[in-house]
């Protein structure tokens, strides 16, 4: 007679595990059921059941800039400041965090 279940061992970041298990507990879903549902969705979708991609970035990647390019970006920011094209810091960070949600 074949086994009705199989064991799965996975390494998970502790904070990710705790947050996910807290949500599953609030929903009344045991972790094993959630993993089983995830695997069934992989089968139904014949792949991951969600899109996997990097979030859009509107910020320049200064690690890939030359010194001249970095100076040009800094100058644009300085000119924006002089022209009054600014926004409150809370609003600026809210936009950044919205774009960086994971």
Provide a concise account of the structure shown.
By secondary structure, this protein is mainly alpha-helical. It has helices spanning 14-27, 31-45, 67-82, 89-99. The longest helix is centred in the C-terminal third of the chain and has 16 residues, at 67-82.
Characterise the protein shown here.
The chain is mainly alpha-helical. It has two domains: 1-52, Arc Repressor Mutant (Orthogonal Bundle), CATH 1.10.1220; 62-99, no CATH class. 55% of the residues lie in helices and 0% in strands. The protein has helices at 14-27, 31-45, 67-82, 89-99. The model has no long low-confidence stretch (mean pLDDT 89). This is XRE family transcriptional regulator.
Give the secondary structure arrangement, pairings included:
Elements: H1 14-27, H2 31-45, H3 67-82, H4 89-99
Main traits of this protein?
mainly alpha, elongated, 102 residues, RelB/DinJ, XRE family transcriptional regulator, Arc_rbn_hlx_hlx, Arc Repressor Mutant
Strand count:
0
| Strand-pairing-aware structural class | mainly alpha
| CATH architecture call of the largest domain | Orthogonal Bundle
**Rg over alpha carbons:** 23 Å
